[in-house]
Structures are given as structure tokens and as C-alpha cells.
Design a protein that fits this description.
Length: about 375
């Protein structure tokens, strides 16, 4: 959906982008290509925030924003497009305001919604380059599959803890995301940033690199990261690049575009054991003073954000080590003749801990995973 393939630059744009124009490899023609280009940014969180700001500042002519979330205080550690002044307001509002402040000539198209199976083709088909700033596997696979079907470059980024990844997936010239990761891992092996944590600057590093790749694609300069993946380790500040090959049997990109059928990716649990209990039901049992034990397998730092009254703090690694050393005997703090509720932040680490307890001889009928973990327990936390 390009307009004029080489739009002219105003006097203000010539001044604003002057540092681009003096680059011999860039110059006025590349700047005009940027202005003629369009990008769709999916997600305005840790990755999307820096990408959005730098794409706007660089002079991309038209940017679509896809996000349905509002700004929360926990976002501010890494999502630099937002601040305290906009808590509770849509992320798309604060990002748009900051982007237009950087580049008032920018055309922003708001899509205040989640990318879903019903709207993916309609949204992605409108833009030249797609930037994936999402943090969940179902949307990530939907972005990939739709880009393959429509022949669009997908600028991918991912971060967790102190690590980051970056690549450009374009099935016309190289592999797609499914060539490397055909299916998502089970839920308990796919922690998100809320569960595993992330150093706040990590999304900034990868988001800026995503913006770099998008600018290169739109301006037609350099060599894009097609067929390569960048691995970034923030702890030792190392960048490594690995080659990735196209899978000739890929379930998506090995097909003709007209034969690709978009489907919803569903995350599954791997053979869950034990039972589950909702926060409301657990509160009811506590109110009734039923005999039970609550084990919080989060880290001690996470306990500082609040605990369930009466819970035992037993970090997952320490629990696993203690069970192994007990060699089948019950732990003194976890008798086998009582119901045990295991809690973490979102329910993944607790699910894995229950499997260790069962393997150590605990009765799965007496083990319960707190559904959605502490994220479902906002009204009953003590400090």
C-alpha cells in the first residue's frame, strides 16, 4: 500500500533528517524511500516501545500500531514509551503521542485490538514490514504464518531474563519461524517475563535492533538478518550470530501461499499431574480453617511483593534439591497426610514442582496447583 514511491521531503524534514542525508550509503533517496514505506508494529511493550520511537524518529512514513493493553506500573521498568502520567490509559495513546512529538509528519494508524485469527490477514496485508513485539507464542506463530502467506518480512525479537534474540523471517528468501520452532513448547517450559523476569534494558537493546532491521528493509540498505539469528547475552555483553536453514518440510513455508490455512496455536500442558484450585476456593478453605499447607515456590525476591497468609516459602530449586536428598522420605515441613497447595507467580513453576513431589512419593490427589498463581491473588496478599 505504498503511495508516491519517492515522495518529496519538506524543509522541516530535510533539517530533521540531516544526519541521515549526509551518509553516503543513505542520502536523500533512501530517506524518501523510508517516507514512502510502512511498518506494522505488533505490541507496544518492552520491544515495541523503543522500536516505535526509533521508527518514528527515523522518518518511516506510515506506522500501524496494534495493542489492546493499558499502561500498568509494572510496565515502566522497561516500556519506555509510557510513564506514570498515563497509568491506566491505553498504551496506544501514549506511544502515539510520543511518536508524533518526534515526527509530526508521521501517519499513525491505530489498531486498538489484539492480533487474532479473524483480523491478522486484514492488518498485515496493509504494510510493507511487520515488527513482532509480542511476548506470547500463539500471537508469535500467527504473525509468522500470516507473513508467510502474504509474503511479508517479519522482524522478530525475543527477550527473557538477560538474553535476547533477533532475526528477520522472510520465507521468500529464507526460513520462517516455524523452520526453527515448528511447535510451541508446553506451557510449563515457556515462562514469560512476569514469571522468569527480565532486565529492563534487554528489550531496549533488541527493540532498537528490530527498528534497525526494519529501516534497512524499507530503505533498501545493508544485509538483513534473513537466514541468521542474533543471540545476545547481556551478562557478558556478547553477540553471536548463528546460521538458520530453511526446512524443506516446514508445515507452513514449504507450501504455496494459497495452500496455507491459518489456524490458532493453542498452548498445552505436558501431562499435568495433581489437581488445581482457584484463588477463591483456596480463600474459602483458609476461611474455614481447613488443614492444608501452602508452598510458595517463587524466589525470595518475589516474596517481597507479597505472600499468601500462612504460606511456606520454598524456592523451586531448593525444593527439588531437598526432595532429591530425602530419597523418598517426606520432608518434615511437608507431611504427606495433608493437602498441599503449590503456588508461584503464574502457575508454571508450581506445576513443575508438583511433578517433583509426585516423583518423590507424594499422593497426586493431595497436591493442588494454584491456578494463575499469585497473579490471581491480588486481594489476599500480605507483606
Amino acid at each position: 500500500m505504498r503511495a508516491d514511491p519517492a515522495p518529496s521531503l519538506s524543509d522541516a524534514e530535510l533539517r530533521r533528517f540531516g544526519r541521515h542525508l549526509v551518509l553516503p550509503e543513505f542520502g536523500i533517496e533512501r530517506q524518501r524511500r523510508l517516507k514512502a514505506g510502512s511498518a506494522l508494529l505488533i505490541g507496544l511493550g518492552g520491544l515495541g516501545s523503543p522500536a516505535a520511537l526509533y521508527l518514528a524518529a527515523a522518518g518511516v512514513g506510515r506506522i500501524g500500531l496494534v495493542d489492546a493493553d493499558v499502561v500498568e506500573e509494572t510496565n515502566l521498568q522497561r516500556q519506555i514509551a509510557h510513564g506514570y502520567a498515563v497509568l491506566g490509559k491505553p498504551k496506544i495513546d501514549s506511544a502515539e503521542a510520543r511518536m508524533l512529538d518526534l515526527n509530526p509528519d508521521l501517519v499513525i494508524e491505530r489498531h486498538q485490538m489484539r492480533l487474532e485469527l479473524e483480523n491478522a490477514v486484514g492488518l498485515i496485508s496493509q504494510y510493507d514490514v511487520i515488527i513482532d513485539g509480542t511476548d506470547n507464542f500463539p500471537t508469535r506463530y500467527l504473525v509468522n504464518d500470516t507473513c508467510v502467506k502474504l509474503g511479508k518480512p517479519n522482524v522478530f525479537g525475543g527477550v527473557l531474563r538477560f538474553d535476547g534474540q533477533l532475526s528477520v523471517f522472510d520465507a521468500r528468501y529464507g526460513p520462517c519461524y516455524r523452520c526453527i520452532f515448528p511447535e510451541p513448547p508446553p506451557i510449563e517450559f515457556a515462562p514469560n517475563c512476569a514469571e522468569a523476569g527480565v532486565l529492563g534494558v534487554m528489550p531496549g537493546v533488541i527493540g532498537c535492533l528490530q527498528a534497525t532491521e526494519a529501516i534497512k528493509l524499507l530503505a533498501g540498505i545493508g544485509t538483513p538478518m534473513i537466514g541468521r539469528m542474533l543471540i545476545y547475552d547481556g551478562l557478558d555483553l556478547s553477540f553471536n550470530t548463528m546460521r538458520i536453514a530453511k526446512d524443506s518440510d516446514c508445515r507452513v513455508c514449504s507450501k504455496a501461499s494459497e495452500d496455507i490455512v491459518l489456524t490458532e496455536t493453542v498452548m498445552i500442558c505436558a501431562a499435568p499431574v495433581g489437581g488445581t484450585i482457584r484463588a477463591e476456593a483456596l480463600q474459602g478453605r483458609l476461611d474455614a480453617q481447613e488443614p492444608l499447607i501452602i508452598v510458595d515456590v517463587r524466589s525470595p525476591d518475589e516474596w517481597l511483593t507479597g505472600r499468601i497468609p500462612g504460606s511456606i516459602g520454598f524456592p523451586k530449586p531448593e525444593l527439588e534439591k531437598a526432595l532429591a536428598q530425602a530419597n523418598g522420605a517426606p520432608l518434615s515441613c511437608l507431611p504427606m497426610d495433608q493437602d498441599i497447595i503449590v503456588a508461584c507467580q503464574s502457575g508454571m513453576r508450581s506445576s513443575a514442582s508438583i511433578k517433583f513431589l509426585v516423583a518423590a512419593g507424594y499422593d497426586p490427589k493431595r497436591l493442588f496447583n494454584l491456578e494463575q498463581g499469585m497473579s490471581a491473588w491480588p486481594g489476599h496478599v500480605t507483606f
